[in-house]
């Protein structure tokens, strides 16, 4: 049976802006780091819903004329992260489905942990699924007569799904945003001044995965959508309610968003991503000091933590690696080009920075470890005297069920190797991972409000579906 596709993704929605599709294009562009595999925009002018979706980067999918052909004052959009084997146009979001109450568009960020179970159940009763995404389950839930007649509608269906979800829904005249009771993935709301539409005052609303997308369209950050909250925006204004019971709301924000995934110029979970990464780097310098001549990052993911490491240690910060930004993530390598050559294509060493030097290299995380192994080699070739690798998070030993695309457990380098074995494998002089306590010292919310399962194995929401992929039994 085919695995359902989970994903990390970026969401953007806008209400009451005359150029909604163009703004959504811009918002998605700012969220491109959250997904490069596909992009889609669905727009409504209050009567008609139009959509355009495609594989590739936002700028590859949308051209000026597409946006001109998408009139409307409200829109939602989605960018999706690349995962192997799942690249299909039918999976591209937002999904647009015609159900008993009309057209509804859905965009999802996160990964549901009971989607397979629900899907099997519905298929047994004759439901026909069109995609291989976990997200489609919500549409089938909405369409069921016992749910669709209810006043609380979407909120009622959300109670039946488990796992990580930040959702945007759009009908012809309504925008709905919701976040799971753990708030695994970020979701924020802001306001935008617009020339006005629908005869209302010139204020619109923007909902996005990260605040950097609000900045991009000139919207002002208002607040985060809260865990377990559902926000409805239509001609009657904005309404908010909690669909989850108070005792079910247990924040478990993804710490890996802070470590790697989110953009440093965003605020998520109440903190500046940049400031958190600085603190991670500073703490790393305290936990794993090194006698060295220079500090530099593996760009771009290690950049901010390297600044923190340098500040705290007093070791000069420099640029040891140059990254070629023209190797897209969707880059398809010709068969004769080795995986390692792709690393070569992406990074080169600044010889004068590393030659004869004791180098501290700061990297955000090790997943398979293959990238840095190659990077260590090119550093040596460029004359680095010592390499002290510092990782601004603990060893990743466990799969993520909530939307971060880590490989199977067996492929995680820290799953089957000790720190000393990893050091040896990478070919570095010393290796230090940040501790879990160090990680949590960098954020401001109480430590119980974060998900650290990839490091600790403590899963806030039990995975319901059989996790064969991860060599686990269903629970
Ligand atoms: P690896 O150890 O697998 O060779 O590479 C790890 C590096 O990839 C990390 O330092 C981080 O910057 C980046 N990374 C971490 N998580 C992900 C992910 O889910 N997808 C991709 N493409 N890169 C990731
Ligand atoms: Mg990195």
Comma- or semicolon-separated keywords:
single chain; alpha+beta; Glutamine Phosphoribosylpyrophosphate, subunit 1, domain 1; Rossmann fold; 18 helices; disordered C terminus; binds guanosine-5'-monophosphate
Describe the protein.
With 475 residues, the chain is of the alpha+beta class. It folds into two domains: 10-249, Glutamine Phosphoribosylpyrophosphate, subunit 1, domain 1, CATH 3.60.20.10; 258-474, Rossmann fold (3-Layer(aba) Sandwich). It is globular and about 70 Å long. The structure holds guanosine-5'-monophosphate (5GP) and magnesium ion.
Outline: globular
Q: Radius of gyration, Cα only, in angstroms?
A: 23 Å
Examine the secondary-structure arrangement and name the CATH architecture of the largest domain: 4-Layer Sandwich
What's the N-to-C terminus distance?
19 Å
If you consult CATH, what is the topology of the largest domain?
Glutamine Phosphoribosylpyrophosphate, subunit 1, domain 1
Bound molecules: guanosine-5'-monophosphate, magnesium ion
Order of adjacent strands in the largest pleated sheet: 3-2-4-1-10-9-11
Number of domains: 2
Please outline the major beta sheet.
Answer: 7 strands, antiparallel
């Amino acid at each position: 049976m085919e695995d359902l596709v989970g994903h990390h993704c970026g969401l953007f929605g806008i209400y009451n802006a005359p150029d909604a599709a163009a703004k959504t294009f811009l918002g998605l562009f700012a969220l491109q780091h959250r997904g490069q595999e596909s992009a889609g925009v669905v727009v409504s002018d209050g009567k008609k819903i139009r959509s355009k979706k495609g594989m590739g980067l936002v700028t590859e999918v949308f051209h000026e004329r597409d946006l001109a052909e998408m009139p409307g004052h409200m829109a939602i959009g989605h960018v999706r992260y690349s995962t192997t084997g799942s690249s299909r146009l039918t999976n591209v979001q937002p999904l647009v489905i015609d159900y008993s109450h009309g057209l509804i568009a859905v965009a999802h960020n996160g990964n549901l942990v009971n989607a397979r179970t629900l899907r099997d159940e519905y298929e047994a009763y004759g439901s026909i699924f069109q995609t291989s995404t976990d997200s489609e389950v919500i549409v089938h839930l909405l369409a069921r007569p016992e749910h669709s007649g209810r006043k609380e509608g979407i909120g009622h269906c959300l109670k039946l799904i488990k796992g990580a979800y930040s959702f945007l829904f759009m009908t012809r005249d309504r925008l709905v945003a919701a976040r799971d009771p753990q708030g695994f993935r970020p979701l924020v709301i802001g306001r935008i001044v617009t020339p006005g539409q629908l005869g209302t005052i010139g204020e619109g609303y923007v909902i996005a995965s990260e605040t950097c997308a609000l900045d991009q369209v000139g919207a002002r950050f208002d607040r985060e959508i809260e865990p377990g909250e559902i926000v409805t925006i239509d001609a009657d204004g904005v309404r908010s309610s909690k669909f989850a019971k108070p005792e079910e709301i247990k924040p478990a924000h993804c710490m890996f968003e802070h470590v790697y995934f989110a953009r440093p110029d965003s605020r998520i979970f109440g903190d500046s991503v940049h400031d958190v990464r600085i603190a991670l780097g500073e703490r790393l310098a305290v936990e794993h000091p090194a006698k060295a001549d220079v500090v530099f990052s593996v760009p771009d993911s290690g950049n901010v933590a390297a600044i923190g490491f340098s500040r705290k240690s007093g070791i000069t910060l420099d640029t040891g690696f140059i990254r070629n930004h023209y190797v897209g993530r969707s880059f398809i390598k010709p068969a004769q080009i080795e995986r390692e050559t792709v690393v070569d294509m992406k990074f080169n060493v600044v010889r004068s920075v590393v030659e004869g030097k004791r180098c501290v290299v700061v990297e955000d995380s090790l997943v398979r470890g293959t990238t840095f192994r190659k990077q260590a080699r090119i550093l040596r070739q460029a004359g680095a005297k010592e390499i002290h690798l510092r990782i601004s998070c603990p060893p990743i030993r466990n799969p993520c069920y909530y939307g971060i695309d880590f490989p199977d457990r067996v492929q995680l380098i820290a799953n089957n190797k000790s720190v000393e074995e990893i050091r040896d494998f990478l070919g570095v002089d010393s290796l230090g991972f940040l501790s879990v306590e160090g990680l949590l010292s960098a954020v401001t919310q109480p430590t119980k409000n974060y998900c650290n399962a990839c490091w600790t194995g403590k899963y806030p929401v039990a995975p319901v579906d059989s996790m064969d992929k991860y060599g686990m039994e269903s629970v």
